[in-house]
Amino acid sequence: MADFITCPEDGNTFELVVILDGPNISTIGNSIFSIYSSAQTAVNINIPLEAQRVNIINLNPVNSLLAQWATTQLFTEMLDQYGNNILFSPVLTWTSSDPLIATVNQSGLVTGISAGEATITATTGTSSGSALVTVSGMPISL
Hints:
By secondary structure, the chain is mainly β.
């Protein structure tokens, strides 16, 4: 029989799969569990949980062509140390390699300023992801 437990630690969610042959299991704290046998004898087990952390940041689109003063929204896909999607929303720091070519706000919205190329980077902790933005020299008229 398999039981599933969601355990909060630092605001994140973890899932623990315990293979049991009949006893019930319940959480006592963030990483301490109590297993009850059919005789209701409790055995406490301390299982340290590893917090999910951002390991890979992918930006989409990875390449953008913008007219001068046009904007595009970059989106993130963040994966943890095991290749799973991140279950929380870490604070990202967005930067442009050349703000005279393209700027980016803290939501990932890029604005083309003048002709050239700039690399836009999103960073959290020690992980980062980048996208290349090429800005044409003339605004596109409709």
